[in-house]
């Protein structure tokens, strides 16, 4: 019997019957939507995933399945690339001061910041007791907004290492070569949320995930929960809990954001000249 026919047959039995009909129709359609969503997350061998958590809106490689191309509007926001240089010096007292480190404000012009540095973290001060040998560990961060228009032409890892050594020489007076060093380019690693990101992007993504994947595809991570490590950990825990909850089908990882009240309303203000 088709669903429509079943609904009509039961609906004839009155109010109680029609309620039952709605429930039956709803659960049938829910099952169909859920099955369809599962097919979209199927492996090449035909195995089905119950639920998948996506941590980058720009696409996802599900083991054994075809890559899922970007479908979320949050995938279109810009993100910053950072050159990260880790330096280790065997001298534990090489720093002139101790502390967490420092950030370089955007207002510092290129002429005073030719390496395009963002800041330096004093890892051996900030996170003590991790290492088996004494020494000083630093992380120099380069690029970000400075490299915005560079595309793929950002400096190489070798250039980053050279610039990081120049930064610590000029700012901290460290002339020694590091005992060990590592430079990596963290491409497009820090999402840059635009104004109204929640309303115009995350809300839309929540609706898309509910309608197309019916709870089977959820999201977590810096593009969705906030860029801080703490935000990402919290988002991960919450989405894992929601995946195990009885109403997991309504959960996408964005439902809290989607239902949250706006903090502030932005409005255009006319300049005094226009008002005259
Ligand atoms: C240089 C730098 C310094 C930072 N400093 C701080 C700080 O001091 N304090 C702070 O709170 N935050 C800091 N942050 C921000 C914070 O570290 C990140 O926002 C956070 O770690 C991101 O976590 P995530 O889980 O979203 O992403 P990730 O940790 O990058 O996890 C994403 C995962 O998805 C996987 N993946 C990617 N593409 C695919 C694909 N197509 N298919 C399948 N899997 C895929 C990746 O392998 C990775 O495991 C810093 C970030 C950077 C880049």
Task: Write a brief caption for the model.
By secondary structure, the chain is of the alpha+beta class. Helices cover 37% and strands 18% of the residues.
Keyword list:
276 residues, alpha+beta, Polyamine Oxidase, Chain A, domain 2, 2 domains, 5-stranded antiparallel sheet, 9 helices, 9 strands, elongated, disordered N terminus
Q: List the total number of helices.
A: 9
Spatial order of the strands in the main sheet? 5-6-7-4-8
The helicity comes to: 25-40%
Task: Classify the beta-strand content into a percent band.
Answer: 15-25%
The structure class reads alpha+beta
Average pLDDT works out at 86
| Strands, count | 9
- Rounded to an integer in angstroms, the radius of gyration calculated over CA atoms is 26 Å
Instruction: Outline the low-pLDDT stretches.
Output: 1-23
Taking the alpha carbons of the first and last residues, their distance comes to: 72 Å
H and E string: HHEEEEEEHEHEHEHHHH
Biggest sheet: strands, sense, closure? 5 strands, antiparallel
Characterization of this structure:
With 276 residues, the protein is an alpha+beta fold. The chain folds into 2 domains: 3-16 and 27-74 and 195-259, no CATH class; 78-191, Protoporphyrinogen oxidase, mitochondrial, domain 2 (Polyamine Oxidase, Chain A, domain 2), CATH 3.90.660. The protein is 37% helix and 18% strand. The protein is built from 9 helices and 9 strands. The chain has helices at 3-11, 15-40, 123-126, 157-172, 197-213, 222-225, 229-244, 255-259, 272-275, and strands spanning 52-54, 59-60, 68-69, 79-89, 101-103, 117-122, 136-143, 180-191, 217-219. Helix 1 packs antiparallel against helix 2. Residues 1-23 have low confidence and may be disordered. Bound molecules: flavin-adenine dinucleotide (FAD). Flavin-adenine dinucleotide binds at residues 55-56, 59-61, 82, 84, 141, 186, 189-190, 221-222, 227-230, 232.
